[in-house]
């Protein structure tokens, strides 16, 4: 997946602007993720192919999207975006602003479950999984 290498001119400036203008639910989730999983590096508004991922962790190959009101009626566009990112080998988790603001613990628990599932799948692929 392309990050900044070979990106169009203005990519870095656009990412900075998106970080500055990030809505409160996105900022709140990023803080909570960094607190809950301090051993991982979380990027905010990082280029991911032709898109900017709200929150991205390269080591875990995970993209987290926080969908606000602007995503209403954009389900097919979001599905296309998710498919493109998934083709690059990244898992994509989507949460609504309301979920982040009203159930942050549940959102963090879902992310934790996803990280454990991805870790287990990797172990199985490497032949280290449970052989019982």
From TrEMBL:
PANTHER family (UniProt xref): BLL0828 PROTEIN
UniProt cross-references to InterPro entries, sorted A to Z: DUF559, Endonuclease_DUF559_bact, Restrct_endonuc-II-like
Gene3D superfamilies: VSR Endonuclease
Residue span(s) of domain DUF559: 13-115
Region span, Disordered: 1-21
Record-given protein name: DUF559 domain-containing protein
Ranges annotated as biased composition (Polar residues): 1-10
């Amino acid at each position: 997946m392309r990050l900044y290498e070979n990106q169009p001119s203005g990519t870095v400036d656009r990412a900075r602007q998106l970080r500055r203008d990030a809505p409160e639910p996105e900022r709140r989730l990023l803080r909570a993720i960094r607190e809950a999983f301090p051993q991982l590096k979380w990027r905010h508004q990082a280029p991911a192919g032709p898109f900017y991922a709200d929150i991205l962790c390269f080591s875990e190959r995970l993209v987290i999207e926080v969908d606000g009101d602007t995503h209403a009626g954009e389900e097919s566009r979001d599905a296309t975006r998710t498919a493109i990112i998934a083709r690059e080998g990244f898992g994509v988790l989507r949460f609504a602003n309301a979920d982040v603001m009203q159930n942050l613990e549940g959102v963090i628990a879902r992310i934790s479950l996803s990280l454990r599932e991805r870790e287990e799948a990797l172990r199985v692929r490497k032949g280290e999984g449970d052989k019982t």
